[in-house]
Write a structure and sequence with these properties.
The two termini are about 25 Å apart. With about 100 residues, the chain is mainly β. The chain has one helix at about 35-40, and strands at about 5, 10-20, 40-45, 55-60, 75, 80-85. Helices cover about 5% and strands about 30% of the residues. The longest helix has 6 residues, at about 35-40. β5 and β6 form a beta hairpin.
Amino acid sequence: MEKLSCLRCGGAMTAVKREYLQLGKTGWIVGDLGNLLAGGLDVVIWSCPGCGKLEFFSAGELQPELEESGIAQVKCPRCGREHDLDDPKCPFCGERNPNW
């Protein structure tokens, strides 16, 4: 999966991160026991910078180079350095994050 096109706007999607999603739900009587028995789902998350659409794919061997934890990174359009996706501005040059 090298290149993906967004199903909503047709723009190029980028791989954001690999994440382990917990399955199950908390119950009133047994509490979190359902979560312990349900396991989890290993996924790769892709994002469209144009419209914000997210796609989830089974991780398997798709993107072994993506980090399994931590905050997703984005490249600054002005200085080209990577910073946290949730930063409103680039901490290096002050350019506004286009994802905000």
